[in-house]
Amino acid sequence: MLDKEKKAPGLFLKIWHEQISFEELKKSLKELSSKKDLIKFKLEPPIIHVACRELEGASELLGKGISVGFKRSGLLSAGRNTVLELNSTERLEFPILNNGKILVDDNFLKLVMEQANEKLKRGWLRIEKLRKII
Known about the structure:
This protein has three helices and six strands; from the N terminus they run H-E-E-H-E-E-E-E-H.
C-alpha cells in the first residue's frame, strides 16, 4: 500500500486474502517498481464488525471473542444497535519499495512471507474457534 497518513481511494495497490508465495510477492513488487512513492507491506488481522440488538448479547459475544484471541476488541457504539468490533493482533508492517527499488533482500522477503502466512493462518483459526463457540 502507499505510505500515506489517511485512507483514500487507490491507497491499496495489491490485496490478498489468501497466503502468497515468495515468487508471487516478487512478481508484484516488480509490477509496482514503476511507482515513485514509498510503498509498504502491510498485513492486518481479521476485523469483524457485528451489529447487536442488545448490549447483553454484544457483551457476551465480546467475551467469547476475547477468549479465542480477539484481544483488541470492544464496543464501538451503543445507539439503536450496539456495534461490536472484534480485532486481533496479527500485524506486520514495514516499508518495502522506495522510488521503484526494493528495500530488502530476498532472504528478508522469504522470512516475511513465512511470518505473514503464519499470521494469516492464526487469524483464520481465531475465526473458526469463534464460529465454533457461537
